[in-house]
Amino acid sequence: MANFTEIATQFTEFYYNQFDTDRKQLAALYRDTSMLTFESSSVAGAAGIVEKLSSLPFEKVKHAVSTLDAQPAPNDGIMILVTGALLVDEEQRPMNYTQAFQLLPDGAGSFFIFNDIFKLVYGA
Amino acid sequence: MANFTEIATQFTEFYYNQFDTDRKQLAALYRDTSMLTFESSSVAGAAGIVEKLSSLPFEKVKHAVSTLDAQPAPNDGIMILVTGALLVDEEQRPMNYTQAFQLLPDGAGSFFIFNDIFKLVYGA
Fold it and tell me: Is there a domain that residue A124 lies in?
């Protein structure tokens, strides 16, 4: 396997750039077997996932990644844990979030998202 | 597979109880193939992982889980994302953290930790 940290970093940059530019285009990163849990609400399959992401109640969003850690996972997968902050619409206060991804090889030299869990983090 | 959310909840309760009581005993939850990334420092194998956890510079620790989300993962595994807060020693201010686990079946009806990524979360 290529350098998993490098792949994880490239993937994460691409994912959030795409999310913040046009999140409908994220469909290409998921498959029919993919799962998303967004603020404890779960959907499966690329179509359902993108419908969920598209329906989120904001127009503009900007993610800023603070930390990224990656590990090799079974089946030549990659597990990623991101922490960061995001700003939506005209809101001035960033919200902290954490997001865990499991990427799997797509058989064509790239990776797709199998597991995706997103959660806002509130102060203790 | 049994209910993955139920297994994830039971596992997480057991893990943090054990961590807060006697973290050396966590060895039983890891295997030689397991990986831990703790605040971006990585170790592999049950022995190395428990040595790392045991060497953390606090005596007393108490985790409080705020949220837990789980998804089925490849190979009958379970992926878990936890957010929570922890208190160490006589410190009065809790620290926020996030932790992602990937559990795999151990072939004997239970699960072990394959991937474990822990990260403190600081305010945006």
Answer: no
The confidence score (pLDDT) of residue B1 equals 46
The alpha carbon of residue B60 and the mean position of all alpha carbons in its chain are separated, in whole angstroms, by 17
From residue B65, alpha-carbon distances to A73, A117, B21, B100 in Å are 25, 16, 16, 13
What ipTM is given for this predicted complex? 0.95
A-chain residues near B123 (CB < 8 A)? 96, 123
| Cβ separation A102–B124 shorter than 8 A | no
Note the pLDDT of residue A123: 75
User: Which residues of chain B, if any, have pLDDT below 70?
Assistant: 1-2, 124
Closest A-chain CA to B83: A121
A96 in contact with B, Cβ within 8 Å: yes
Closest-approach residue (CA) in chain B for A65: B124
**pLDDT tens-place string over residues A76-94:** 999 999 999 999 999 989 9
A31 pLDDT band, cuts 50/70/90, is very high
User: The domain containing residue A43 runs over which residues?
Assistant: 4-119
Give the H or E element holding residue B11. Answer: helix B4-22
Res. A38: pLDDT tops 50: yes
Q: Do A117 and B81 touch (CB under 8 A)?
A: yes
Name which of A40, A75, A85 is nearest B69 (Cβ-Cβ). Answer: A40
Q: Which two tokens stand for residue B83?
A: 């957010």
Query: Which among A69, A79, A96 has the least Cβ separation from residue B40?
Result: A69
Residue A93 forms part of a structural domain: yes
Q: Can you give the CATH number for the domain in which B60 is found?
A: 3.10.450.50
Number of domains present in the structure of chain B: 1
CB neighbour list of residue A54: distance below 8 Å, 6 or more residues apart: A23, A24
